């Protein structure tokens, strides 16, 4: 990478970091371009070289967090490989936890969970596309339920001060996914 490209990349990252610092403590409606440029040490013109507004910065961050097809290895269902394993999902979440914890938290972007699910869901649906016995409409609901539960559990886990070890969380998600919720509840 030449020196100019490195400076350009660093400038953009500085603006993103300044935005993120502000976003962690403020609602996006309250963040101004002036706030970002003051924090990053640039002028408004520099901001507009990279982004059109504060929402564009947030969208850039969110898009960078959506896993691509090559980041999603197969899911294990029973002894067959089908789609994405929960440990890979957890690993993606852990690698970007500073962003996911905020974006999926109470003050984050409510649309981000949908973006995340909508990026992953077609990959899983494709695994079942040629199965004649699969009700595609029901499958869509099952996948929505599963992804919502996984995202919800990981978000909850990151907000806790006394967390389960990650391997226990992974095992609990696996058991809930494979055996269902009622089998995990204590008998009454």
From TrEMBL:
Superkingdom: Bacteria
Annotated keywords: DNA-binding
Residues forming coiled coils: none
Stretches assigned to the HTH tetR-type domain: 9-69
Entry-linked SUPFAM superfamilies: Homeodomain-like
Signal peptide: none
The name this protein goes by in its record: TetR family transcriptional regulator
């Amino acid at each position: 990478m030449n020196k100019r490209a490195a400076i350009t990349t660093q400038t953009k990252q500085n603006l993103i970091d300044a935005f993120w610092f502000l976003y962690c403590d403020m609602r996006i409606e309250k963040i101004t371009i002036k706030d970002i440029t003051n924090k990053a040490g640039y002028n408004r013109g520099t901001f507009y070289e990279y982004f059109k507004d504060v929402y564009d910065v947030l969208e850039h961050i969110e898009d960078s967090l959506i896993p691509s097809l090559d980041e999603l290895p197969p899911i294990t269902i029973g002894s067959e490989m089908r789609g994405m394993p929960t440990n890979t999902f957890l690993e993606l979440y852990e690698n970007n936890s500073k962003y996911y914890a905020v974006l999926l938290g109470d003050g984050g972007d409510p649309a981000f969970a949908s973006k995340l699910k909508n990026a992953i869901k077609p990959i899983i649906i494709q695994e079942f596309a040629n199965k004649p016995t699969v009700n595609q409409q029901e499958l869509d609901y099952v996948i929505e339920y599963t992804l919502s539960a996984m995202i919800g559990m990981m978000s909850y886990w990151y907000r806790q001060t006394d967390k389960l070890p990650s391997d226990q969380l992974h095992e609990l998600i696996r058991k809930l996914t494979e055996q269902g919720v009622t089998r995990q509840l204590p008998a009454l």
